């Protein structure tokens, strides 16, 4: 049974999540054991560099080039550290799957050179990860789906289907990271029946505002304390809900390019005009996330499914104000966390990329066209051999030939 490390850094850009899992079987028969999970905070100046690289006003070519390599170093350190914490030597690890750090995600076509271009860019050079760890690394999962006509996101639905699909009741796996996204798993449905999409901002605006209000001393609203102290300014929430993204139908995805620094600057300026500052601003942005999530459920999920169970994961699942407001807005939904199913809500996204990497080297496609809009199923990711070259890949290929992978 292979040992696989999954690596992930999300839109909030606060560090690298690393999960070391043991995987048995494949596809619907996957069983896994989580040996260790660890979040490695970014070193001083790294988060600021990521945010600068993600902003078209400051994302210079030389910064992107250097940051790609620097992030590869940090991702490699995260892999080494989670292996150490598990009491497993890195030489025993068979495979690494790395999502990287998204700095731009542009799923809507824009003409360039006569081509209708959709594009995405994740940094964290996998060659560095493979060289520092000696372990075969699979990375850059999104572009192949986009080449097949999809949006390159969301990537998690295949894993959500494998881990959480249920015969008797519809389930939603709801990740509230920087961006909020849902995977809808119909009761007893197949992979072709899965619906998944981004609902809009999760923590990205809340975290950004906290950082500015505290001059970087705080990076998120710990335990929802600031939202609890503040008062929601409903007219500003209603203004923000007018963003065109919320009027699009799935499949749809978004990121920092839509709800990053430029959008936050406009929100802050409008807040000053309306007298919405400090904790009132944090409460208002939290209410904005809740309102857009609730709208997504009411428009795209609840008309089709009843007795829905929603499984929360990601950093937002640890914010008691955000989750209590969600329960208040959507009382018909049964709310749970992925911890209830044996996988930490903090670790699930990293686990996703461990499984995706495993399925890639087993030769299985893991994009979900009903979620991404792709024309067909494709095998995701780019493979960088470790110190043993292609030996492990060839072994998995032989197992695949004999039905073991």
Keyword list:
single chain, alpha/beta, Nucleotidyltransferase, domain 5, 2 domains, seven-stranded mixed sheet, 40% helix
Fill in the CATH topology of the largest domain. Nucleotidyltransferase, domain 5
CATH architecture of the largest domain: 2-Layer Sandwich
**Which term fits the overall shape?**
globular
Average pLDDT metric: 93
CATH class of the largest domain: Alpha Beta
How many angstroms separate the termini?
A: 10 Å
Show unreliable segments. Answer: none
Question: How would you portray this structure in words?
Answer:
This protein has 405 residues and is of the alpha/beta class. Helices cover 40% and strands 22% of the residues. It is globular. The chain starts with a strand and ends with a helix.
Write a compact overview of the structure shown.
By secondary structure, the chain is an alpha/beta fold. The protein has helices at residues 46-54, 61-86, 126-133, 142-147, 157-164, 204-213, 225-229, 234-240, 256-259, 261-274, 278-301, 320-329, 348-361, 369-372, 391-401, and strands at residues 3-9, 15-24, 31-41, 95-112, 115-123, 137-139, 171-176, 179-185, 195-201, 309-313, 334-337, 382-384.
Strands, helices and their partners?
Elements: E1 3-9, E2 15-24, E3 31-41, H1 46-54, H2 61-86, E4 95-112, E5 115-123, H3 126-133, E6 137-139, H4 142-147, H5 157-164, E7 171-176, E8 179-185, E9 195-201, H6 204-213, H7 225-229, H8 234-240, H9 256-259, H10 261-274, H11 278-301, E10 309-313, H12 320-329, E11 334-337, H13 348-361, H14 369-372, E12 382-384, H15 391-401
